[in-house]
């Protein structure tokens, strides 16, 4: 039967003919170790498939190498992208990430953090549920909130208000003067900030707009588009890509052409918006920047909050309004 015990620093030290302390210094880049010895140690570690013991490090330093990330609902397509960004950031810091799904349940959100506590995490990052109070100070370890600038507890997020301004400015510059804003019906800080930015630009430009609150999903956007009395509206400015793609589906069913008859913008740059026809003009989040800062605060390497700027991604779902090509010659079904 083979020996399944993991390779230790002592095994490497014996193979190279140096002390265990020398191996530790060579692998960590600390202490006085010649370049030749350090390279021999690293080569032996690679050849022996050495894996550092995080449990041993925790015992020596009194700090864990585990982080917990709690997301609101894995069924929403944005959150796997968040997990990927945080996983990359954790790996860059030599840490491991535990991920929990709140499943849209406030009690489950709290339970996930408590479960992670029992597993010895060093800190937790929480993307909180919409409209539900969550106190990061209620736990005996650092809890970092990723939400929106409108949330006083927010530590790291996109500048959602700036993103709303970008989407609205794009439509104004194309010449749209009557727009439908689609926000989240729930009390979402993110949606509130995005829509506030849209309103700022539309108000300054004298652009008319109506608002409707929907669930942030495909079906709500499609249902809205199928029942909507469009009148002379020439653009839809949605707070989420899922809503925008649903709107485009419903419009297609009604024979409304995007962007020839109606322009549509979204938010978050999801894969859905890249594969829909036509591809969706949207606002992109810098998730890597958000994750890097959140982890830096969680591990005590940084302080304060950060708002990461958003960028406009222009695709084929928006165009100059053609007022006479549809509304004056066709009747909406």
From TrEMBL:
Pfam families: LacI, Peripla_BP_3. SMART domains: HTH_LACI (SM00354). This is LacI family DNA-binding transcriptional regulator. InterPro entries: HTH_LacI, LacI/GalR-like_sensor, Lambda_DNA-bd_dom_sf, Peripla_BP_I. Residues 7-61 form the HTH lacI-type domain. It comes from Tianweitania aestuarii. One of its GO terms (molecular function) is DNA binding. Keywords: DNA-binding, Transcription, Transcription regulation.
